[in-house]
Specification:
This protein has 1043 residues and is an alpha/beta fold. The chain has 35 helices and 31 strands. The strands form six sheets. The protein has an eight-stranded mixed β-sheet with strand order 18-17-16-19-20-21-22-23, sandwiched between helices. It has a seven-stranded mixed β-sheet with strand order 3-2-1-4-5-6-15, sandwiched between helices. It has a six-stranded antiparallel beta barrel with strand order 8-9-12-11-10-13. Strand 1 (35-39), helix 2 and strand 2 form a beta-alpha-beta unit.
Amino acid sequence: MAATDHKEVEIDEGLYSRQLYVMGHEAMKKMMQSNVLVVGLRGLGVEVAKNLILAGVRSVTLHDSEPVSMDDLAAQFYLSEADIGKSRAQVSLPKLAELNGYVSVRVAEEPLHKDFLQKFSVVVVTCMPLDEMLRVNALLREIAAERQASQKSPGVFHSMPMVAADVRGVFSYAFSDFGDNFTIFDNNGEQPREMLIEQITQEQEAMVTLVEDSPLKLDTGDWVRFNGVQGMPELNNMEPMEITKVSNHSFSIKVDTRSFPSPATAGYVSEVKKPKLMHFVPLKDALENPSSLEIDLAKFGRSQQIHIALQALWQFEAEKKRAPVPGDKADADEMVHLAESVAAKADYVESADESVVRALAQCSRGHISPMAAMMGGIVAQEALKACSGKFTPLHQWMHFDAIEMLPEDAADLGVEEFAPRGCRYDSQIAVIGRQLQERVQNLRYFLVGAGAIGCEMIKNWAMMGVATGAQGLVHVTDLDTIEKSNLNRQFLFRERDLGKLKSEAAGEEVRRMNPAMNVKALALRVGPETEGFFNTAFYNSLDGVCNALDNVEARRYMDGQCVLYGKSLLESGTLGTKCNVQVVLPHITQSYSSTTDPPEPSIALCTVHNFPHTIAHTLVWARKSFFDSDLVEPAANFNAYVEQDDFLDTLRGQNTSSQLTALRHVKEVSKLIGTVTQEAAVEWARHKFQDLFVNGIKQLLFMFPKDMVTKSGQPFWTGSKKAPTPLEFDINNELHFSFVEAAAQLYAFSFGIKLTLSHDEIKNVASHTKVPEFVPKQKKIAANDEELKRQQEEEEAGDVTVEDLLASLPPREELKKSPHRMQVIDFEKDDDTNFHMDLITAASNLRATNYEIPLADKHKSKQIAGRIIPAMVTTTALATGLVCLEMLKMIQPEKVAKAKEIAEKDFTLETMPFRDAWINIALPMMQFTEPTKAPRQKLGNWSFTFWDAFEVQGPKTMSQLFEWFKENHNLDIDMVSCGSSLIFTSWMPAKRRADREAMLVEDLVREVGKVEIHKGQRFIILEVTGEIDDTEVEELPSIRYLL
């Protein structure tokens, strides 16, 4: 087995679609040629292997001759009690192998000698003793040196990358050695930046100025290339060049443009990513002088202290052939003594931190699922970096701890509290103790979502023993069914599960991993419509909520429900190599909705219609033009007219412009349905080409000539407004043909016809289609959104009326008798056979050609038009591991009480035991911070946060409610609302106000607010504003009105 095989590989884009938007095709091909050795198949090793197999490397070889023990079962999800005594690797093999049919998975039992190791592209070692790690690292260095010595091509470097890692209770580390010289082809994985040029000067070192809304996103030393430059076309053909940043909108280049014919007035500049070299030192050197990633400012210097403690642990285990016994003071003292000796020889610390050393001694025997999942994601991503040269490798150590998770005064609880019980959770009991393990097993949790995050989360919970006790229960809900693209990162699912509900399939699989787990699978959306099910009794039964959602709206809703019912929330999300974790604690921290991401910048309609300057603009235009205006709305309106008796009544409720558009659709389709042929579909597509990319552009230039100036004397076509150029149709142009074919296919489909014409026949029909010559029209074209709105208003007041169009339609009875109906096309980006993305890509690129905008291939077009969220299994595993660590803190009342005490202090140097996280493993960058405190307000002597509410016992009339507020808070209420409905204001007419003051609150909510009160509902939430002594109170808590 060679380390790499350079045969061309074909990527299954259906399976790897979301991952491809992270890794890219070139990196993915390198991964698919890479053979990875994974040594050690405990929880950490199986996580790494699982992630690599799902990611799609060429092969994964498993190496672990150790027999399964009870200690493995708390983290190794492919082992069971029935496997005890068998080979870890052999038992894991069949289950790992079925994760991805494209990856060869096998077990090797050869010793780790040089001849064996050189077969691999990357070697990952987990849970390995230090002396063995040093030996393997030295061998890999020898192999790399021998290959480099035989290398004859200059600038080509060979390495044998090694990634080492271990999980020891609440501690873990990762180490990377990618050799003396390792080439990175893309350091961050971000899309190359593209910016719009306003002008380029004629001078010895040309100055490039960008348009106002296109800021410079690069720094001095970055590289760029030019394209579409007008006035200096010579720049378009030049090799990439280095820039010097001058301002946020300008940079200089070492190009003498004085001889160029004129200054440049438009064009594009694109970032070019240049390869970079990184240099690593061997493990033996890195041990003495560790370069480590700092990840938590509240624990500054902790990485070095963990490094010292780990060396003490390695010495302890080498001497005693065992790990320290949890709770054993003598073992902890011995560890401290060893650590002090190590620290005395190190020049990167003054002394050993005894608290860190004792914590490691306390828990090092444990190997728990959350830590294995977290480190498994990081280590697998490091291996993928080694395979592909994509992203920046870890340089060279990462040390992590979650000491805050250990039980308070763990060292004083004694050996018995952490001693093995002869059960599958022994390795976790060694960390958290017997009492906390019992609490874990009786947890009642709500997992919202069973996709990528949900699968990893519920797997971790199964290993931890969540909901395996008599009182325990996990509710998991997800409406979605399993699709092929899910299989790349939602590892509980297999091809046999395609079409099944995710929640049910996930529940079945984790019960196979841990039959004792109590899981209730639901297929209900979380939202107002299901509040009758997810009611007060439901939330009161929970210990907490964990979100595994992929959209902001659902996250906000669940966040609101947690605030309403006073429940803790574990929130996380991923985006490619980025992830975040947020801990939400009632009355202590901010909630998810307390902060918002900035909204995506909107695109002006006139920009999309007439003045695009990015490929995103042309893609928005293409999708709207065809999958709204041309192919969807006409078919939908015709079918509705024929089949829905209330169509016209519904239509009259819309504005005049919408009515006219819908009726024109019905009229046009009525004339064509049943008569359209395959040839007519091709002719329609050829006419659309002429209308959109030739005559439409000519009309725009007729209204706004290229030499047009504004009233102020400035050129109209300048900055982000680029003058377009009409195309000349050429059926032998691949892009032109692609448009005609895709448009004809979909037009024919909408009329119920299958287009079977060959390419030659399509070309023949299109070539002989007569298209009208361009005749300028005195038609106003909107130069901005205000003019566009005015045009729509003018259309409503035009010559053709709704009544005229209604009178011209054929009778519905006649059309009902016809067997012909239109096929309404629903845009589906993931079906490569339906021509949807072919049409959008071709139309977008033709329009981009009009405006000299750099084109986008189908892959990139699909991401933008389909709004695809990039995803990696490694990031998901990392995020869920961190969530589960916070969960184990959250269920300890002492930790919550400490967090509450700290949150209530105006100033303290203490930090909460909980951690939010922001991570980008591409860089790699990890930031852990304490959760943000919930802001406190005051009402008289009452201090409150948004978690608090006025609790009022009903039934009460509105007048009695006002009296309650006056008596208890000296508050005069002037406005009351429920949901989005305003049910009372102090300034409404006197009679209406008097009537509502006399009504019961619940009756007002039902009758005026039109809010349904579900059976069994315990309370209503009201919002109020009011005054104290004629002074408006800015913020007031909600009212919890008890029914």
